[in-house]
């Protein structure tokens, strides 16, 4: 099975959202918003990490 790294990053992002949903059940809206921003930063970093490199030929 040949799975691209971007697909793996998307699956990992879904796994990271699970603790946020669990955290939502026990906290206020402000702390939930902060945790969602943290997850968004993490997901964005994963997509940049696993994206194909930019190639520039001078």
Provide the fold topology.
Layout: H1 5-24, H2 29-50
Helix pairs in contact: 1-2
Summed over residues and divided by their number, the pLDDT gives a mean of 79
How many helices? Answer: 2
Percent range of helical residues: over 70%
Sheet-strand content, in percent, reads under 5%
Low-confidence spans: none
Q: What is the CA-based Rg, rounded?
A: 15 Å
Instruction: Give the strand tally.
Output: 0
Going by helix content, strand content and strand pairing, the class is mainly alpha
Major beta sheet summary: none
Please state the overall shape, judged from the principal axes of the Cα atoms.
Answer: elongated
The arrangement of helices and strands along the chain is HH
Distance separating the two termini: 37 Å
In short:
By secondary structure, this protein is mainly α. The chain is 72% helix and 0% strand. It has helices at residues 5-24, 29-50.
Describe the structure.
The protein has helices at residues 5-24, 29-50. It has 58 residues and is mostly helical. It contains two helices and no strands. The protein has a domain at 20-49. It is elongated and about 50 Å long.
Main traits of this protein?
58 residues, mainly alpha, 0% strand
